Amino acid sequence: MKRVLACVAGLGAVLVVGGAGWYYSGRVIVPSRKENSYPLEVIAYDDSRVTLKGEPDPAAPGEYGLTWRDGNATLGPVVSVTGDTVVREVTKVRRGTLRPGVRAYLDRWMWGHEDPRSALGLPYAQVSISGELGDFPAWLTPGSARTWVIAVHGRNANPSEALRYMPVLRSLDLPVLAISYRNDPGAPASPDGKFHLGASEWRDVAAAIAYARGQGATGVILYGFSMGGSIVPMAARRLPGEPIKGLILDSPVLDWNGPIDQAARQQGVPLWLASVGKFVVERRTGISLDELDHVRHANEFKQPILLFADDADTGVPPGAALRFAQLRPDLVTLVRTRGGGHVGSWNVDRPRYEQALRDFVTRVAL
Predict the structure, then answer these.
(1) What pLDDT, in 10s, does the model give residues 90-124?
(2) Is 294 helix (H, G, I), strand (E, B) or coil?
(3) What is the number of other CB atoms lying within 10 angstroms of the CB of residue 9?
(4) C-alpha distances in angstroms, 221 versus 96, 127, 217, 366?
(5) Which of 52, 148, 280, 323 has the fewest C-beta atoms under 10 angstroms from its C-beta?
(6) 3-state SS class at 301
(7) Which of 132, 59, 117, 130 is nearest to 89 (CA)?
(8) Residue in 297, 343, 362 with CA at minimum distance from that of residue 60
(9) C-alpha angle 12-16-19 in degrees, rounded to nearest 5
């Protein structure tokens, strides 16, 4: 009887661990379509300054948007911090009514989920890219240069993530193709409906390169943010014959072990269970996290790389990016910032970011 009870207890433990690993793996590979949350409250507003209260930190250094359900404003520096309230400069209320009681969020993207015309006044076209799974929507801002920039957003994001960088690229007359990829809204789903963390999404980048070449591009620069910074390096490794002139990587996931372990720490999940989750991720998708470790494969890269990493990034710890830069100093121009957080290097040091972007693109494309 004791032996039976021990077997039952052991089986129960296996089921519990397996179930927890299945749940945790889903947090990594299952697309999320959650609506935006609005954790900040506007306490006061006087046309030039706004008082905010709430989480996450409304005193984050740098330049941000303030986005609420039907409006958006551009925020400048912090004026003062008193207790749990923060006063920031308001550069411009772009749309909607900013007033006490409004719930909002601090917007690193600056302009929420707008398009290039509504956010920046830039001309653009909605285009369709034909890929192996079907047609993928994308934005195309025009330019006369023969080198195109292909922008690849992060996990559960969308092409609006690229808006901050379009004015610099527009000033250099480079066309920008900001793409969607499998499992995005409006794009085809992958056969299993799961993210493959770059292991299959790179094929949608290949389709975007083919589209650009079909429109007259003679070269491309691939620009990836967060998970897009895992997809782009995989495309570069898988497409050695394509005219990829350079890579721009912003807070890239160059090794998935770091962000998966970091998310476990933030959620109070033991690291051994995160390891189980990784095992389940590989079994549910057929991918290899070792193959997606671009640091391990650093010797495969041939193109110059501009790499942005922020020391305060709690979503994708910068360690892998820094190791990659150390391994390939012949290719990598590293721009390291402080206080911007995940994909926040532009926000915390816009002049430095834009100068590095301008210098790199001019060197490799023009």
Answers:
(1) 999 999 999 999 999 999 999 999 999 999 999 99
(2) coil
(3) 10
(4) 36, 19, 11, 11
(5) 323
(6) coil
(7) 59
(8) 343
(9) 135
Under 8 Å CB-to-CB from 50, ≥6 apart: which residues?
42, 44, 66, 73, 75, 87, 88, 90, 98
Contact 178, 162 (CB under 8 A): yes
Sheet of 134-141, strands arranged across = 125-131, 134-141, 176-179, 147-152, 219-225, 244-250, 305-310, 332-337
- Say which amino acid occupies 17: V
Parallel, antiparallel or unpaired: strands 134-141 and 176-179: antiparallel
Task: Name the band, by pLDDT with cuts 50, 70 and 90, for residue 8.
Answer: very low
Helix (H) or strand (E) holding 283: helix 271-285
The CATH label, of 3.40.50.1820, 3.40.50.720, 3.40.630.30, 3.40.50.150, for the domain at 116-365 is: 3.40.50.1820
How far is residue 283's CA from residue 148's CA, in Å, rounded to a whole number?
37
Q: What is the pLDDT of residue 324?
A: 98
Dihedral sign from CA coordinates of 201, 202, 203, 207: positive
- Torsion angles phi and psi, residue 28, rounded to 5: -95, -40
Q: Report the alpha-carbon distance of residue 221 to residue 204 in Å, rounded.
A: 15
Instruction: Map residue 15 onto helix, strand or coil.
Output: helix
Q: Are 254 and 230 in contact (CB under 8 A)?
A: yes
pTM of the model: 0.93
Pick the CATH number of 40-107 from 2.40.10, 3.50.50, 1.10.3470, 1.10.760: 2.40.10
